[in-house]
Design a protein that fits this description.
The protein is an all-alpha fold and 143 residues long. It has one domain. It is built from 7 helices and no strands. The longest helix is centred in the last third of the chain and has 27 residues. It is elongated, with a radius of gyration of 22 Å. The relative contact order is 0.09. Belongs to the COQ9 family. Its main location: mitochondrion. One of its GO terms (molecular function) is lipid binding.
């Protein structure tokens, strides 16, 4: 669904590629960074909303950040794509979205493996004596 929404977005702009290129050049200027980020956010937020995303937790932000990267790279690729019906752009988009899914799977696996951020914090704190050369865990602290 995400790929279809991004593809539709770019297909709607197909006859206006040079205008999109000019708009990107304008947005790339440092004084227009805020406008650029606002436009990118609205685009990826609309894609997620249109595909039925209802997240309100940290996933809300991570989904949009990951899609922003994939969308931005695909947009730049699409601008120079001369393949028939932009087939190379759609293959590029699919690869970027697979990368996004891989990141999300790794994140989910880490969340399953690590009981909680508090557990990790306590583990780090309990090992701080050892890391600083204290006597905990058999270190003598001699230099």
């Amino acid at each position: 669904r995400i790929a279809a929404a991004v593809r539709l977005r770019l297909e709607l702009e197909h006859s206006h590629r040079e205008a999109v290129r000019a708009a990107l050049a304008y947005c790339a200027m440092p004084q227009n960074a805020r406008l650029s980020m606002t436009c990118l956010y609205h685009t990826v937020d609309t894609v997620w909303f249109a595909t039925g995303d209802k997240s309100t937790d940290f996933n809300f932000y991570s989904k949009r950040a990951l899609l922003a990267g994939a969308y931005g790279m695909t947009l730049l690729y699409w601008l120079d794509d001369s393949s028939e019906n932009c087939e190379e752009s759609w293959a590029f988009l699919d690869r970027r979205l697979e990368d996004v899914m891989r990141v999300r799977r790794v994140k989910a696996n880490l969340q399953r493996l690590l009981p909680s951020p508090q557990f990790v914090s306590n583990l780090i704190k309990s090992g701080s004596d050892w890391a600083s050369g204290g006597t905990r865990y058999g270190r003598t602290g001699r230099r």
